[in-house]
Amino acid sequence: MKKEIAINYIETHNLIGIKAGLNRETFLDIWMIVVNDRIFARSWGLAEKSWYNSFLQDSKGQIKCGENIFNIKAIVPIDKNNLTSAINNAYLTKYNTDHNIKYAKGIIKAKHIEKTLEFIIKE
């Protein structure tokens, strides 16, 4: 049930709050997409102190979908290479508005593909 609520929200909203690790106080709004009922995001900023690198150190965190907050586990998907095309298409489809399209075209480049994570909702 939690997963369905999160997926519905992510499919219908452009910015989703994320908190990497359990020590962060605030949520950061990022782009997320859904492919095959699985939730993914790619890091735009490639900084050392990013949400992506925080998750690599500690896979626990939360996402905020409206008023709902879900505990998650972040993983590097083992089938990332097989999903890359579908994830790229999901980004280009969801974020195809005038001001977002240049970023959507950017986030499907190799340096961002390498920074793909999947978020597993803890039921």
Automatic annotation (TrEMBL):
Entry-linked Pfam families: DUF2255 (PF10012)
Highest taxon, organism lineage: Bacteria
Name of protein: DUF2255 family protein
Biological source species: Flavobacterium frigidimaris
Upper lineage: Bacteria, Pseudomonadati, Bacteroidota, Flavobacteriia, Flavobacteriales
